[in-house]
Structure to design on (171 residues):
C-alpha cells in the first residue's frame, strides 16, 4: 500500500502541476500574446496539434482526477463519511469537486467550442460573399467569447482545486 500511495501522489501532483500550469500559461500568456496575429496563432496551434498537446493534456488531466480519487478512497477508508466530517476531508473533497468542474469546463465546453471555431475559421477564409463573411465572423466572435469565459472559469476552478489540495492537510 505504501508504494501505491507514493506512486499515486507522484502522478497526482506532477500531472496536476502540468494541467493547471499549462492552463495558466495558455490563458494568461500564450493566447493573449498570439491574439494580435491570427496567422501566427494558427501556426502555433497547428504545431501544438502536431506535438499531440490536445491529446496529452486531457490524458494528464484524467490521470490527475483518477489518481486523486484513488488517493481519496485510500485516505477516507473507502469514502467513509467520518473522514469527510473533518476539515481535511471536506477540503480534499471540495478541491476534488473543483478539479472535476475544471475538467468539464475545459474539455466538455471550451475544447468543443475551440474545434467549432477552427472549422468556422477555415470556412470564413473560403467565403467570398460579404454578407456570409460578416455572419460567420459574428458567429466566430460569439464562440470566442464563450470559449474564453469557459477557459477562464476552468483555470479558476483549477487554481481553487490546486490551492485546496495544497492546504487540506492543515485545515
Amino acid at each position: 500500500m505504501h508504494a501505491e500511495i507514493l506512486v499515486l501522489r507522484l502522478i497526482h501532483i506532477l500531472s496536476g502541476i502540468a494541467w493547471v500550469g499549462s492552463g495558466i500559461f495558455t490563458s494568461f500568456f500564450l493566447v493573449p500574446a498570439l491574439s494580435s496575429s491570427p496567422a501566427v496563432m494558427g501556426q502555433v496551434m497547428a504545431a501544438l496539434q502536431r506535438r499531440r498537446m490536445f491529446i496529452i493534456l486531457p490524458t494528464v488531466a484524467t490521470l490527475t482526477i483518477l489518481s486523486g480519487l484513488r488517493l481519496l478512497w485510500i485516505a477516507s477508508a473507502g469514502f467513509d463519511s467520518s473522514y469527510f466530517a473533518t476539515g481535511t476531508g471536506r477540503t480534499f473533497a471540495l478541491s476534488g469537486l473543483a478539479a472535476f468542474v475544471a475538467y468539464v469546463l475545459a474539455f466538455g465546453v471550451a475544447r468543443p467550442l475551440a474545434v467549432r471555431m477552427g472549422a468556422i475559421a477555415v470556412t470564413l477564409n473560403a467565403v467570398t460573399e460579404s454578407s456570409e463573411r460578416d455572419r460567420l465572423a459574428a458567429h466566430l466572435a460569439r464562440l470566442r467569447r464563450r470559449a474564453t469565459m469557459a477557459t477562464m472559469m476552468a483555470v479558476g476552478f483549477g487554481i481553487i482545486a490546486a490551492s485546496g489540495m495544497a492546504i487540506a492537510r492543515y485545515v
The chain has a mean pLDDT of 93.
